[in-house]
Amino acid sequence: MNKKRGWIIVVILQVLFLLFIAGSYYSIDYFGKEIKIKTAPVDPREILYGDYVTLRFEISTVSLAKWVGDASLLERGDRSVYVVLSENKEGYYVVKNVYPNKPDVSDEQIILKGRAERIWGETSDQLQIDYGIERYYVQENTGTELEQQAGDMDAFVSVSPWGSHKITSLKPR
Amino acid sequence: MNQKWMRHEGQKWVEEKIITSDQLDRIVSRYSDSKEQNKFTGILPVLASILIAIGILSFIASNWGEIPPLVRLSLLIVIMASFYLAGEKFIKKGNEILGTSLNLLGIVTFGASIILLGQTFHLTAVDARLFVFWSLPAVYYLFRDRHKLFFLLLIVLTIGGQLYNMGEFNSFSYLLFLLFLISVGGFVFLYPRRQETLLFTLGVSVQVLLFIIVEDLNLLWFFLFGFALYTAGLWVEKPVFKQSFNRIGSLIGFGFAYGFYFTLTNEFTSEFELPNAALYLPLLMVIICLAIIGKRKENRFLYLWELLIFVPFFYLVNAADSLMVGLLYLVVMFVYSGFMLAEGYRNENRSQINFGIVLFLLVCLIGYFNLAWDFMPKSVFFLLGGILLFILNAFLQRKKKRILRNGGNAS
Fold first, then answer.
1. Average pLDDT over every residue of A1-6
2. Chain A within 8 Å of B67 (Cβ-Cβ)?
């Protein structure tokens, strides 16, 4: 690499990377399909990021019976899983099955990628699934307001054909 | 050192007829003041640029909520690019310090931008990938400018990333570790410098320790790592690696002896767990053999005492009372640091003597602590302990001075 001009390429690559972060977010709007799920949030604080509300969804805890695959795969820590969702009569998307590898699904079903961990519940064993959308950033000091009404909310999540997803809005039910 | 001081010192040499005043002039003129002055006045613009950066960032942070996402993106890009641009300009002009620190600010802004954009776009980090991307420009500038600042930044980013990864996700980032080995390791391999190599070795050791903690392995694996590091020091060719590996490896071994002494002489020995023997013992054997062969290869068979700290006495807890094993470790530490001191005195090696003094004082301190803590009134305990250490230190330092009077090996 040319020593005198090399730094320009490096700077351009960094700019492109930042643009890519923004672009991947906006592109979900254009290509994604919007689904509705139920929530239940809380509000801690983290050092690296600013203020945000931690969300929990109805689809975050799943009965172990819906796991399609070897149970031993879940023994060590968390692992990535593919969650197949389908719409119920009320218009909410609920978990149909959870797979260790990407399954083929029909057009009405949606696949969300997440990380699952097995937890031992009181009555039955469950899967705790993180979808990477558990943090909803809000302006400083407005998180509590959202938190109070957030036990009962509808989260609208946009899912792109290539699997990335984001929350487009939160609305009181 | 400046010219004034040099002339003052040199005057004495002229008076003692070691050099002539003409020679003094020529010596002094070799060390021009200009570079030193540059160093001091050079710091001012650096401070100025840092203040400006803080100003911009705090302005953005306080008005962050009102700025629309796309404007935030462009603002961050403009700020980052201008840091790099200005940095390059100053480096071209020959103002290396200012240019380098501006480039450094550019890298910091890049990382801050990723974090701020992640927040804007509700992205959640799932691993330490952020720190990997953040490190990449630092790697580029490190190999281009070979400046120490980038080296330090890379170490901070790697260790910081691993700590973040551990705290948030309770996992170890292999990618970050690999990046560290390739970039920082490659750098010290290509451009061996003592301090940098020591930092690299420390960085590797810290990450191995974090890995062992995250994976919930037996801590004794770290002991094995220390031993392996020490042994690697015997086998590598490059002198800088030899010394750092030897030092850090020995320190880990000594730290373990210290820890064994404390745990074994206290009550909670029942929790003392040995690692999986089928895997641990063969590896230990291999390393012991390699170490002995390495010693022999270097023709330093006499220095076999250095291996004393790595002898796995902790296996004796199966056969003997753990209190006795603990006390054995105290004896081992005494003997080890004593040998280290004696060796340093014989070689007139300043750093070895200093290392030995520190180790020896540490051993004395814990020996005294455990022996006297229970039956002495606390005020007398601390008073006597302080006086004891003071006298011991004075004695050792005097001995060091006497031995090093005729020069001695500085390294």
1. 63
2. no
User: What value, to the nearest 5°, has the Cα angle with vertex A117 and ends A114 and A118?
Assistant: 140
Please tell me the predicted confidence (pLDDT) of residue A107: 79
> Distance between CA atoms of B136 and B199, rounded to whole angstroms?
19
Alpha-carbon distance of A145 to A147, in angstroms, equals: 5
A47 in B contact zone (CB under 8 Å):
no
Tokens linked to B219: 């801590």
Least Cα separation, residue B346 to chain A (angstroms): 50
Whether ipTM tops 0.85, in short, is no
Q: Cβ distance A81 to A129 under 8 Å?
A: yes
Interchain contact B74–A (C-beta under 8 A): no
- Alpha carbon A2 to chain centroid, angstroms: 43
Specify whether the CB–CB gap between B382 and B322 falls below 8 A. Answer: no
Cβ neighbours of B85 in A, within 8 Å: 11
Would the pTM count as exceeding 0.80?
no
d(CA A68, CA A64): 9
Residue B93 has a CB neighbour count (10 Å cut-off) of: 10
Residue of B88, B120, B164 with shortest CB distance to A48: B164
CB-closest option in A15, A132, A140 to B126: A132
The pLDDT tens digits for B85-114 are 999 998 888 888 888 888 988 998 898 888
Residues B27-44 have a mean pLDDT of: 64
